[in-house]
Amino acid sequence: MLFEKIKSEILAHNSYIVGAGGEAAVIDPRRDCLIYAQIAERENMKITKIFETHKNEDYVVGSRELARPTGAEILHGAREEFGFGTGVREGDTFRVGSLELEVIETPGHTVESISLLLRDRSVSDDPLMAFTGDALFAGDVGRTDLAGEHRRQEMSQMLYASLHEELLPLPDGVIVCPAHGAGSVCGGNISDREFTTIGYEKATNRLLSMDEEEFVEYKVNEKIYEPPYFEMMRRLNREGPPLIYNLPHLRPYSAREIRSLLGKKAQIVDIRSPTSYAGGHIPGTLNIWREGLPLYMGYYLNYEDPIVLVDDFNLDLDSVVRHFVRLGYDNIAGYLAGGFAAWFKQGESIERVGTWSPPDLAEHLEDPSVWVLDVRNINHREEEGHIRGSHHIYVGHLEEHLAEVPADKQIVVHCDVGYKGSLAASILKKRGFSNVTNLLGGTIGWEAANYSLVRD
């Protein structure tokens, strides 16, 4: 029997390929899907089935892309109309060699969510694995707010029923294979465990020990941010995303061409570190570090205007392009040839962002001309504490709240380390704030320097 988990890092997306007897099935494939065909070829198997456990909100699904070269059948929950594939219902079964995949309807995260129960009939009639999509994670369960606040209670009740009537009655030894791991925005606090079981979750997952009233109240009041690009993902994944066939080819732009794009409808993204960006950057550019791209590009980039990258050495841009493709940004266009060095070698003007260490901020904490802005997740601020006197605006919502930031003060931005702080600083600089400083080290460096955080 073939079983392999394919992880898409940063997005914390898990997809799976299972197979036996020369056939294979893929569950929740990503858009850059060549890896599944390569695994099947390695195992001398043909991919005949592709399952989508739900329409997904945080990435573009890859089922249409994978079905094109393989001819595999696409299967998804029947409770919502899709522009592709075939709807399946509770109790439907599908054979893949000696393996049997049984559909279990588990709505709550979305209305059409399904889970898949896997049995290897050549060995036993007992279930071996459950592919639970976004219903059940390691240490957590799916978010229930994505259908809208007006349906949050209803969706929470649905999820409770799905968990307690469909998944938890399964044998304790059944291996749970969720669609996401730690760090995903599709759950509140997913545990960092590669594998888990039904029995382990029943014993350790605190949400599963709640009665229905407590569970629903918790989910209704749960604080999880929804990036604006989720709406685009829902539409693409419902209607069927466009086929890309291959990763986009990036065009090299000269420094003069980049200069001609400034002020026009082009999105120039500096993917360097906070320190590199602070030391000098192309005026008006947005700073999203490489690993932060999947987390924050969806807040600040649109799907129409060309996207051009600025790096230092343009190393491994292929992996960067994959981040854009997985989120549907087919307008990724090119990069600054020669890296940022090409810009200053041509004598072009640069902008800078100030940087402070924790001792610098401590020295100026009582200065009325300094305005400290905390751009962390609100849950981190409430649970871990905050720097005394700081104000809070989440980095993903900063542009919506610029009127709250005083233009006549020195703005000292901080997060937990400095990366989101640099993103926030770049937004403020782009929007005309001239005196902006990023606290390098953030709250982690603040505490390491023996300064305290306060809790309200």
Secondary structure: elements and pairs:
Blueprint: E1 2-8, E2 13-20, E3 23-27, H1 34-42, E4 46-52, H2 63-70, E5 73-77, E6 86-88, E7 93-96, E8 99-105, E9 114-120, E10 129-133, E11 136-137, E12 140-141, H3 152-167, E13 175-178, E14 196-197, H4 198-204, H5 212-220, H6 230-239, E15 251-253, H7 255-261, E16 267-270, H8 274-279, E17 286-287, H9 293-300, E18 307-310, H10 317-326, E19 332-336, H11 340-345, E20 354-356, H12 358-364, E21 370-374, H13 378-384, E22 391-392, E23 410-414, H14 419-430, E24 436-439, H15 442-448
Parallel strand pairs: 3-4, 4-5, 5-6, 10-13, 15-19, 16-17, 16-18, 18-19, 20-24, 21-22, 21-23, 23-24
Antiparallel strand pairs: 1-2, 2-3, 7-8, 8-9, 9-10, 11-12, 13-14
Helix pairs in contact: 3-5
InterPro entries: Metallo-B-lactamas, Mito_Persulfide_Diox, POD-like_MBL-fold, Rhodanese-like_dom, Rhodanese-like_dom_sf, RibonucZ/Hydroxyglut_hydro
Pfam families: Lactamase_B (PF00753), Rhodanese (PF00581)
Keywords: Metal-binding
